[in-house]
Amino acid sequence: MPEQVTAVLLSQGDELTCGQTLDTNSSRLAAWLWGMGVTVRRIITAPDHRDDLTAIIDAAAGLADVVIGTGGLGPTRDDLTAEAAAAASGVDLALRPDALAQVQSRFDAMGRSMADTNRKQAILPVGCTVLENPNGTAPGFAINHRDCRLYFLPGPPHEMGPMFEALVAPDILARHHLTPPILVRIGVVMSESVLEKKLQGLDIPGLDTGALSVGFRASLTGNEVKLRLDPGVPAPVREALVSEIIDRLGSAVVGVGEIDSAAALGSRLAARGETLAVAESCTGGALAARLVALPGASRYFLEGATLYANAAKVRVCGVSPTDLEAHGAVSEVVARALAEGIRRTAGADWGIGITGITGPGGERPGKPVGTVHIAIAGPDGVTHRHRVHYGDRVRVIQRTVTATLMLALQRVRSASASPDSVESAPGQP
Amino acid sequence: MPEQVTAVLLSQGDELTCGQTLDTNSSRLAAWLWGMGVTVRRIITAPDHRDDLTAIIDAAAGLADVVIGTGGLGPTRDDLTAEAAAAASGVDLALRPDALAQVQSRFDAMGRSMADTNRKQAILPVGCTVLENPNGTAPGFAINHRDCRLYFLPGPPHEMGPMFEALVAPDILARHHLTPPILVRIGVVMSESVLEKKLQGLDIPGLDTGALSVGFRASLTGNEVKLRLDPGVPAPVREALVSEIIDRLGSAVVGVGEIDSAAALGSRLAARGETLAVAESCTGGALAARLVALPGASRYFLEGATLYANAAKVRVCGVSPTDLEAHGAVSEVVARALAEGIRRTAGADWGIGITGITGPGGERPGKPVGTVHIAIAGPDGVTHRHRVHYGDRVRVIQRTVTATLMLALQRVRSASASPDSVESAPGQP
C-alpha cells in the first residue's frame, strides 16, 4: 500500500490573525484533500510578517509532500507570499512576462487600467510554475523545495476554489500517481453522534477494513455522510454498502448525492408538476426563503405567508378565532388550518402550516419553548406532527425548517400512500 | 510603551484537519484578543496525534506569552490534549478531585450517570489550574511552561466562549498588567474597501498616532467598523472621532453599537409604537425571516407575504394585471403596489415591497440579473429605489435584504421629513 501523501495548509494575512476574517479556505482545502486520500498534518495561519512567513514556509516544506498556501498575493505592501516563498527556497524574485500578461488581461476584461502596484503580482520566484487565475487578477504559483511541492493560491475563496480544482488537485494526483478514491455523499437529517451509533458494526461482504473512511459534515442547508472508498472497491460492493447505510438511516435520508432537503423537495414537486404554498408563523419566512433561494423555484413554488399576528392567521388562512381562543395559536388545529388555508387560497397542490414557540420566553402550560406544530396538506389529506426542538431562537427556527422540509419530502415521496391518520387525527392533542 | 503581549492559538482535532468542521474558535479568540491589544503570532490546527501535538505545544510556548488551545478535552481515546500538554511541560498526569467533582456535577445536573470514560476528563497535568466549564462536562486547565501561560479550553464554541470571557481574558489582563483598550463598534452597510477610502486621512486633535487601530468585520447580519483605542484617550477625543467617522460614512451607518440593521429597524418601530408588514417576491421571505429571527418582533411585525407567482401579487396586494403586463413584475410600479397593498391589507403603519431578478437567468431588456425595485410605504407616502446588485442568486438576495433594511431604517428615522418624491415620482422608470 503506497505511503500516504501528506499536506500542510498555510493561510496568510493579518485579517485572519486579528479575527477579522474567518479562514474558510483551509477547511475547504482540507475536505477536498481528504476526498483525495491526502492527509493534512497541520493548518497554519500566519500574519503579514516576512521573516515569520519565510520560516513557516520552509518548515512546512520539511513536514509534508504538499504545501498549499492561500492569501498574500495581492498588490499591496502587506502581500508577502512571493517574497517569503522565494526567500524560503533560496531563489530570487523576477518579473514573469507570462504572469504579467495574465494580470493585464484581467484588467482589460474588466475595462479598467492596471495600476503600477499590480505589476507586483507578476513578480514571482524564479523557476516557479505560474498558475492561472480565471476569476481574479493575482496569478498563483508553484515551487519545489525540500522534496515538497508548494502551491500558492489567492485568498478570495471564489478565486482559490476553481484554481485548486483545475490546477492543483490534478497535479497532486499525477505527481504521486494517485487514483482518487470514490466519494459518495448521502444527505441526512441527523447529528453526528446519532449517525455514529447507527453505523456501528457496518460489515459489508467484499469490503476490506481500511477500504472505507466515513466522514460527516454539518451545514445550514443539510448534513451529509461522506463515504470515501478505495478506487478498487467493486461497484456491487459499493452499492451494497450504500443500501445498507440507507436502510439503517431510514427516514433521515435526504438522498444519495442530495444534501439540501429544500432542493430534494423542489425537484420532486417539479417532476410531478405540482405546486406548493406555505404559511409560517414562528419561522418567519425562513422556510419560503430556503425554497426560493434555489434556482428553479418558480417551477413549483407559488406563495408564502408569514402570519405572525393572530389577526393575519385569521384573515389570510381562515383560522377560526374560536380555535385560537380555545387552543392557542401554537396547536395542532391551528397548524392544520394554516396548511389547508394557504393551500386553498393560493390554489396549490400542497400547503404547509407551521406554528410554534421559538423563545426566549413565550412558553405556556404544556407548551415549552421549542414546541412546534407542523401540518402538511396535500391532494390526499392533511398530516400533522408535533415536535419540541432544543436550542435558542435561531436554532429552533433552523431545526423547525429542516424538520418541515423532511416531513414534506417524505409526504411527497409517498404521495400515493394514505395519510398517517391514526397518529394525528384532528382533535387529538 | 509596554511590549506587546503575544499569543499563539491552537485548535485540535482530526475533524478540523479533515475539513469536516470549520474552526470558528480560533477566529473568535483572535478577534477578542485583538480587542484586548494582544497580538496573535500564529494559529495552528493539529490532528489527533500525540507526538505532533506535544511538539506543537512546546514550540508554541516558545513563541509567545500566551497560548490558547481549543479541543481535545473529551472522554475518547482521540482526546489527547491533557496528555500532550503534560508531556510538553515535563510533568505527569494525575486525577484531580476538584475536576472530577465538576464533571460529576455536570452529569448530576443533566440527570445522567457518568461513564468511566468521563473520568479521563479529570486526569490533568500535575500542578495545573482547573478552569470551570459551566456549559459542558470537560473542565479546561492552565499551565505554565517556558515563560508562557497556556490555557486549554473545550472545543464546543458555546462552552469555550464563556470560559474565555470569564476566566482566561481577566487572567491575561491581570498577569500582564494590561488595561484593556476601549472598543467602539459601529454597524455599517459598506464594504471594507469603500470604508478604507472614506477613512483616509482621519486626523482628530488630541488623538495620537498609534492610539487608534481600526478593524472591520463582515457578517451575514451586518458589517462593522471596530475602533480600538488606547485606554488613555480622553472621552471628548473619542466622541470627536466617532462623530467624524459617522459624518464620513453617512447613510451607511446602522448605529454605534448597533450592527444588525433588522434589530435597529425593529427597535425604532417598537419605540414609535408602529407596525410593519412586508411583501417580497425574489427575496422569498428572507426579509421577514431576518425580522422574526430577533426576539421582540411581535412588538411591531404583523405579517409577511412571499408573492412569488404573479397571480399571488394580484390577489394579495392588488397589483394591477395591466401594470404587470405593461411594465413586468420587476418594475417600480409593481414594487409600489406591493408596498401599499401589504400595508393596507395588513393594516400596518409601514409596508415594504420588493421585486427583482436574482438569477441565474431571468434578465430582460434593460433589466439585468441583480435588478431590484424596493418600495417603502409609510404614513407620509411611498418612496422607491432601483438598484442593481452584483453576485450570484444568494448574494443578490442577501444584498437586497440588507439594502431594504437600511432604506427602511432611514425612512423611519426621518419619518417627519417629506418623501424624496423628486427622485422617485410614480411613473418614472
- Using only CA atoms, what is the Rg of chain A? 27 Å
Overall CATH class of the largest domain in chain A: Alpha Beta
Shape of chain A from CA axes? elongated
> Might you state the CATH topology name of the largest domain in chain A?
Molybdenum Cofactor Biosythetic Enzyme, Chain A
Beta-strand proportion of chain A = 15-25%
Ends apart, CA distance between termini of chain A: 60 Å
| Number of individual domains of chain A | 3
Strand order of the largest sheet of chain A: 2-1-3-8-7-6
Largest sheet of chain A: 6 strands, mixed
**What's the rounded overall pLDDT mean of chain A?**
93
Tally of alpha and pi helices of chain A: 14
| Total beta strand runs of chain A | 17
Largest interface, with counts of residues having CB < 8 Å to the other chain, equals:
A-B, 71 and 71 residues
The percent range for helix content of chain A is 25-40%
The residue ranges of chain A in which pLDDT falls below 50 over 5 or more consecutive positions are 417-429
Structural class label of chain A: alpha/beta
Characterise this structure.
Two copies of one chain form a homodimer. The first copy, chain A, contains 14 helices and 17 strands. With 429 residues, the first copy, chain A, is α/β, with parallel strands linked by helices. Chain A folds into three domains: 5-175, Molybdenum Cofactor Biosythetic Enzyme, Chain A; 182-256, 2-Layer Sandwich (Alpha-Beta Plaits), CATH 3.30.70.2860; 274-421, Alpha-Beta Complex (Maf protein). In chain A, the strands form four sheets. Chain A has a six-stranded mixed sheet with strand order 2-1-3-8-7-6, sandwiched between helices. Mean pLDDT of chain A is 93; it is low at 417-429. At the A-B interface, helix 2, strand 2, strand 10, helix 10 and strand 14 of A face helix 2, strand 2, strand 10, helix 10 and strand 14 of B. Strand 14 of chain A pairs antiparallel with strand 14 (301-307) of chain B.
